[in-house]
Specification:
The chain has one domain: Ribosomal protein S11/S14 (Nucleotidyltransferase, domain 5, 2-Layer Sandwich), CATH 3.30.420. It contains 2 helices and 5 strands, in the order E-E-E-H-E-H-E. It has a 5-stranded mixed sheet, with helices on one face.
């Protein structure tokens, strides 16, 4: 009783790209405007292992792969970029997204910053 209903390809023109650049890896997620994941990737997922994962080149490769996948599968044309973290892949990720040819409408830094931080060390007694 299987019906021959073919799943239609979803067109998503606007997307959000989240780049999380830690010191050890760079994670990239492309979502639609509601937050549903369209494509994701990382330096490790792109074939880099160990210390090479934390290089700007690995971040560039991961971003290019992920954005290309979103473009090919969903027709993404316009993106908003949200960058989080202090890692070496921050600037490289931005340059890679610019190189893929999608229109960038927003670049935001969403790195969490503590407003009072952890409890300080106890006072030194001499």
């Amino acid at each position: 009783m299987a019906t021959n209903t073919k799943k239609t390809k979803r067109e998503v023109k606007q997307a959000k790209v989240y780049v999380s650049a830690s010191f050890n890896n760079t994670l990239v997620t492309v979502t639609d405007t509601e937050g549903g994941v369209l494509a994701w990737g990382s330096s490790g997922n792109s074939g880099f292992k160990g210390t090479r994962k934390s290089t700007p080149y690995a971040a560039t490769t991961a971003v290019e792969k992920t954005v290309k996948q979103a473009k090919d599968n969903f027709g993404v044309e316009d993106v908003e970029i949200y960058i989080k973290g202090p890692g070496p892949g921050r600037d490289a990720a931005l340059r890679a997204i610019r190189a893929t040819g999608v229109k960038i409408s927003l670049i935001a830094d969403v790195t969490p910053v503590p407003h009072n931080g952890p409890r300080p060390k106890k006072k030194r007694r001499v």
